[in-house]
Amino acid sequence: xxxxISSLAIVGAFFTALAASQELTKPPVQDNLxxxxxxxxxxxxxxxxxxxxxxxxxxxxxxxxxxxxxxxxPADFQIWKVKYNDCPEPxxxxxHRNSPSPLDALINTFGRLPVHTRDFVRHVVSIPSDGAFAYxxxxxxxxxxxxxxxxxxxxxxxxxxxxLENAYPLKPLSxxxxxxxxxxxxxxxxxxxxxxxxxxxxxQNTVVATFDRNVPGGIEKIMQGSGKIKSQYTTVLxxxxxxxxxxxxxxxxxxxxxxxxxxxxxxxxxxxxxRAEVEEMxxxxxxxxxxxxxxxxxxxxxxxxEACKGTAFA
Length: 314
Hints:
With about 325 residues, the chain is α/β, with parallel strands linked by helices. Helix content is about 35%, strand content about 15%.
């Protein structure tokens, strides 16, 4: 599937890079957002799902590229089509066989995200690691180590997609004048990681906003000093509401980022690959969406690896 990138996306990428390059000087309200995890787990319920294996010998190109970039053997990944009850189209997940938690943990944790948040995640990848971190590459979220079953990390990474894949009316939110005005009004940021740059600050404020919207008592109940960041997380709440309830559970998927094209798992010459497609692996899987009610979005390129790979999540 060919992906076309508009001039608007290129301009947006410039401002996104700018927002991601400048550290913030305002102090954090608390060290991290670990204390939000249980409340989120208690109130964002698992969406029921079914799964089936992807056609043997094939995998999404983006998963293969990530595997090779991370110096992992693509053949060590299990490729699954996971269909949640709130969307007629499955998500294709790439799960490394040595991941520290079972596949069910990845499926269920991702399934806790509101469907209109999941809409903006293209693929999900799990890779074993001694460290615990994650990043988002053009809407594909890559979890390392135990982050695959950490709900706040899922929310944080999906928040990058909401921001940078243009889910909000303000596109992208993190470099919009309205966001910067909200930041200027406040005296702090949520936690130490929020100080990295405005892209990470929006993502952490999205975790805060999701808690405030879905957990009884809201963020004031658990975060002393939350008033110091109220303009920021309220801006996220307003944007998600105007975007159609992006952080609210319920409903059905309306739009999705397109799947990456299917490619052979192993390296092969063009002749060998053509023969394998016909004789061994069957025809190339059709990864296009079949349901006409699901709008296919344009992929906006972005990369959070530089910031995220240096960060450890509990």
